[in-house]
What we know:
- It is a single chain.
- The protein is built from seven helices and seven strands.
- It has a domain at about 30-130.
- By secondary structure, it is of the alpha/beta class.
- Strand 5 and strand 6 form a beta hairpin.
- The mean pLDDT is about 80.
- The longest helix is centred in the middle third of the chain and has 33 residues, at about 130-165.
Amino acid sequence: MKKSYSELRVGLTVLLATVIVVSVILWGKGYSLSAQYRDRLVRFDDVAGLEEGAFVLVNGLRKGRVAEFILEQRGVLVRLSLNDRVKLYTDARFEITSPELMGAKVVNIQPGISGRTPPADTVFYGESGGGMNELLKMSTDLAGNVDSLLDVLQITINNINKTAGDPRVQEAFLSAVRNLDQSTEHTLELIRINEGKLTEVMNDLVATTGTVRQLVEQNSSEIDNTVDDIHSFVAQMREISNDLDQIVGALRSQDGTLGQLIYNGETITTLNRTLTSVDSLVEEIRESGITTNINLFGSRRK
């Protein structure tokens, strides 16, 4: 009896351990005995190595599997078995990615935020994200670009070497260097010859600067007075200008006899007529002289 009881305990223990192991495996694989699944159709231009049974991730969490591929003229229609609790909206995004560099491809879903639930038979459109193949392709293109750049660089170096190896270029370069050396030597020679004169000029400049500074310091009060006088003169000129502005304004407004005389049209006309008469009289006197019939001692007898 004790032996049978011990065997029963061992059997129950093994069975319980098996259930636990199977449950852990199912949980790790994304299976759930209580979950219900529904199919969702997604059309891809290229499945990029995705296989049936691959995981379906919703924001990184396992929520289903790839159930079937249906080859079409416009691409591949993929049927996903997705957990019924996952809510998809009209702006949901489907992308084939590889979570690890060398890992298997999966379908990653972003459920969307529009809040509008699409019909059950809606066909979504997915994208093929970057994977190892795309990385290798980009690396190949980059290597090709690097090779082209190296070819251009090699051609440039060859041209530089060819140009630098030309005897005419070398001779021109050496001539330029010799001319520069000669110019430098001449400049140094002129400096050595005129060193005394340069020193004298610098001393004179320093002395002149000191003299000017001394004059300014000695006559600072007079300079200040001159500046004050200039300010006073400027102020007086401003006052005279203001007075002239007032006089001109009064004349323009015909305020006073002078303003009326200047701006009165009749006065100007009369003055012009008088000047014209005077001019005529002067012209007549110049041509005919002055004739008079004045008799100081009575009338003349005929």
